[in-house]
Amino acid sequence: MASNEVKPRQRNRARTVIDPLCTICHKVYSEPLQLPFLLSCLHSFCKKCLLKHIDKEAKTVEGNKHFNCPTCGQRTVVPSNDEDASAGLPVNLRLSHFAEVTSYNKKMEGKVPCENCPNKGASYFCENCCMFICDACNTDHQRWRELRTHEVIELEPLKKKEGHSLKIKHPPQKCRDHRNEEMRFYCLDDQVLVCRDCLMTTHDGHKREYIEKVAKSEQEDLKKVMPDITSAIGQLDEVIAAGKKMEKKMKASSKEALTRIDGVCEDLVKAVRVRQEILHERCKGIDSGKEDVMRSQIHEFEKLKNVLMFLDETTNDAINNHTPEELLTVKKVVKAQVTRVLDNFSRFLLDLQENEIMNTSLEVDSIIGSIESLGYFPGVPHLECCTIEGLGVQEALVGKERVFKVILRDEKNKPLEGNVLFQYELVNKDDADAPLPKVSITQSEKQNDGCATLSVTVLNSGEYQLKVKIRNAPLVITNPFRMWAHPPRDYNEVNPDAPIATLPVQKPASRGIAIDYSTGLLYVSDYDNHTVMVLQADGEVYKQIGGNDNAGGNLSNPWGVVVANDTLYIVSCNSHKVKMYALSGDFIGEFGENGSGPEQFAYPRGIACDNEGHLFIADYSNTRILILTMEGKAVSSINCRAKPVDVALYQCIR
């Protein structure tokens, strides 16, 4: 039989793992509706409150119910085909047993009647029978052979002990399917407690072992991860302490900066007073932003620390205090949470995002001519005026690294000087609960150019939106950045004997064709219908791009098409433009206009791209080939003797 006893804490804890009360209804756990059930985050709630919470908050996704823990917000998933939503969750036997012990301890505080002889007071408690008994009943316990081995505790001496607590020897759990059978075995295949009859019926042929042996093995496994949990808590303690120390330094540095500003501004004429107030507000805003970031970091560190400390307590309790039945009932959930939390910690950046230094630069030599630009904070952008630039829509493969570059500009529209710690986040617009992509940031090797290179590995397909922040303040993105992620597609060898597919376009209407080798899709311009058709290799139409309006992403008599850098470039002949689309068909932007300038077209037609990132465009009516960058900036031109219709390049591989 297993023993349940409240043991003194070995360490001070931020939270108490064992609590006999449900944290929602604040009632003691008991059967049947107050029975505690364990969520994947290791928090427990009574069945009645849990069913109400699931019914109110759960969302059904792919046949399962998803709901968040009322305490920590972590998601738990249960099958939705069960009539009882709690059926997919394990019972927290440890908590149930502790609640039972607590109820007996509470009874012991007053005068307790004998449970066999109500008219007599109880002087003893039998741990095996879980009963308060009188002197006569205790004598019977000593007389009967079946009861002689029971553990009987005298109440009065126990009450005088500090931190006294009763013990209860719980019998093995009874099987739900075979009511009179005790569950003394553990099915290794299904990972559940089973009885002897179960081994001969529903679990026939399965690997099994005595629960004591399996529990001992699981305890050893949990012991192995305890050092990792302790180490993680220690590291978080260090970085939180450093963050709080740096927060104080920031405040002192801010006061020093304000004093210096005041000293200079007091020597200026009245016209400078207006500028002085502006600098005050800027400085306070920066200080507030830095403190917000540091407080936000400290909050995240403390939040993760609480999760780890709670996990530490739960795991330690499972090792030291759980009975075999209790441990095996929850060990799968405990192990899953240990893996999940330690994995989150391993990806958690412990570097502080701000420092305590606030540099100031005050110019007074040319104050008369530049009063409005007096004073600035080097390396600190003016967030109200900053913008971020980058390619509008990108394509990415799930599980593959995607690299792109962004530029941060200051209030004067110049690349931001100095290193700035950006905060980037890619949010899945289709599934808000999907794991966030891994984003690593590398500042440009060139100094003071405001560039940063982002490396993104997307784990799920879908559409993502970029969010950029500095000190938790969002920046304006000049081009709305989106990224489409789709699963990789294997290349297929061409069968030379396969039938040739017929494209669904009239021969006179087709002017250009391009292929995306990563997906095998064909992009065919349909001149008369003002569209570009996206075709599969078998000729089936996948989608259409464009239209007959010159505005936005629509096309006017499309001619040449080319795929370069995950972008589709289409020559819109009669609107004298080149339009850019993501390979998904989303419009990115356009360049060009009617004319004969270095970045203008007159009925352009064919288009090609070289390995250096240059576009070659047949400028028909201007009798030339224009060479432009991918963004439409002029590079050079080639004059022709006749009006060019198309252009082709020889790719030399060295």
Automatic annotation (TrEMBL):
Repeat region (NHL), residues: 588-631
GO terms for MF: zinc ion binding
Record key words, sorted: Metal-binding, Repeat, Zinc, Zinc-finger
Domain RING-type span(s) in chain numbering: 22-72
Record-linked InterPro entries: 6-blade_b-propeller_TolB-like, Filamin/ABP280_repeat-like, Ig-like_fold, NHL_repeat, TRIM45/56/19-like, Znf_B-box, Znf_C3HC4_RING-type, Znf_RING
Any one Pfam family match given in the protein's UniProt record, by short name: zf-B_box
Positions of the B box-type domain: 109-155, 170-211
Domain of life: Eukaryota
Protein's name according to its UniProt entry: Uncharacterized protein
Gene: 105313456
